[in-house]
Amino acid sequence: MTQSSPALFSPLQLGSIPTKNRVFMAPLTRCRADAQTLAATELHATYYAQRASAGLIVSEATQIHATGQGYPNTPGIFSAAQEAGWKLTTDAVHAKGGNIVAQLWHVGAISHPDFQPNGALPVSSSDYNPGGTIYTQHGKKERVAARPLSTQEVHEMIAAYKHAAEVAKRAGFDGVEIHSANGYLLEQFIRDSINKRSDEFGGSIENRIRFTLAAVDAAISVFGAGRVGIRLSPVSAANAAMRDSDTQASYGALVEALAQRRIAFVHFIEGNTGGARDLTGFDFAWAKKVLTAAGVAYIANNKYDRAMAIEAVESGAADAVAFGVPFISNPDLPERLKLDAPLTPANPKTFYSPGPEGYTDYATMHS
Ligand code: 8OZ
Measuring from atom 1 of ligand 1, which residue has the nearest CA? Predict the structure, then answer.
């Protein structure tokens, strides 16, 4: 008798998006956009189409605004050239029967004047300096303190999220994932360790989660709630972000507000991004219950292997599991996991290097 296939390999109705399995591709910054236009290229289309067997692809993080960039050659999603560039990718993924959502991103204070229009200061909730160094086109630089956005400018940034969602829709994406994780702009508003504002976007939890929810609502107004997701990293120290003084209360209120909106999914980085799965400080199982009760999918991420992913979906701890690094070097990851076939290790030296090497040249089992 053949054993029935684990639920990880079964379809999932993700809001309005039907997925063929629950092995998702996590967003992965690869720094290969066109240097002039910051548009995705034919090379991106090839790379993403190679990975179209994922139940869902979440695109690499894409900046919604010129001020949102913090790394070399990360793609944007606000100009006509960027829209045309992404259309190559969404067409190629759809031709292979895949689903792809755009991850909408603003790095806030993680940027540097070298990445900013006119060499201006990066923007944030407050005069926040994340510290450390950053590599720009002019070499290694010390980070600087950001300029707090005015209340009016936060409203303009919410409009920029809406514009980016419109661009994503015209570019043919199946939806968007709001990047509200890893110490970037939206998290710089959520966490009281960073947000020192006294306007409607600072102070109380309700005020600190207002910007994130407004970005979500802007995306909903474009795509409908069933095509909008969000990524959260409640307990992560990525980009040196200090913990909120009450992670459970702040992120708990956010999760409840997202559940009320009946969005498609919440994508959790469980533990420290790309690092230890220490979940202390936030009750992820509680979040799963709240979201499930509202029909919102819970996507789990961070250092899952095959056995962990099968168990997470089988036990009901997650509806789907997103894999990052394994998808870089295994374009046919769902099939390999299903067959329990060996995985090809990824080469970190080519994660952020230009061109096809380490990008589109990883073989499938059948190539
Ligand atoms: C790795 C390198 C650059 C950016 C994130 C978008 O951490 C990123 C990122 C990851 O969410």
Answer: 29
